[in-house]
Amino acid sequence: MQRQPVPSKTPIRFGRFQFHLTTAIVLMFVAGSILWMNMLERRTKSKGGLATKPLSNSRNYFLARTEEEFLQGTVGFGWFGDRESYYGWPCDAAHFSVQLWVDKSGRASGGTYRPADWRVQGIVIDALTAMGILLSVAIASEWWICRANNARKGA
Fold first, then answer.
1. H runs (alpha helix) in 15-119
2. CA 34, CA 125: separation in Å to the nearest integer?
3. For residue 110, is it left (φ>0), alpha (ψ between -120 and 50) or beta?
């Protein structure tokens, strides 16, 4: 009686998922641009008022003005108010606010920082947007590289 060979159980090999080096480099630059856009500070119009007389005066008058109006104008000894900043792209993910005094030369002093306002919805939308952009760029880059390789092989 002859023995029959037992079929070997070799695992099925799947092709590895890989990116080309060019795609990785392009993705690094795109990711850096997205990070830059998310970390760029956007200021809103600062709300506050300007002092019409020196602070040492017992009767100080404040007129409602923005910081920009105070710095461009000729009236006032200083400006006191809230300077607000937003971070995130395309949605606002963080909001920071500081209450400070600005003199006529534009120097800020006496800043009182308020706790940051983190917006979860904005963070999620920003992350999903970034992932969508990176995935689109990766697919487009790989398609372009494969198309160029196929054209070279066919020629």
1. 21-39, 67-72
2. 13
3. left
Residue 102 near residue 67, CB atoms below 8 Å? yes
Burial letters 80-97, b for 16+ CB under 10 A, else e: bbebbebbbbeebbbbbb
Q: How far is CA 81 from CA 22, 105, 140, in A?
A: 50, 16, 48
CB 96 within 8 A of CB 116: yes
Residues 6+ apart with CB under 8 A from 142: 19, 20, 23
Going residue by residue through the chain (155 aa), what tens digit of pLDDT does each one get? 677 766 667 776 667 778 899 999 999 999 999 999 999 998 877 888 877 666 555 455 667 778 888 888 777 778 888 888 999 999 999 999 988 888 888 888 888 888 899 999 999 999 999 999 999 999 999 999 999 888 888 75
pTM over cut 0.85: no
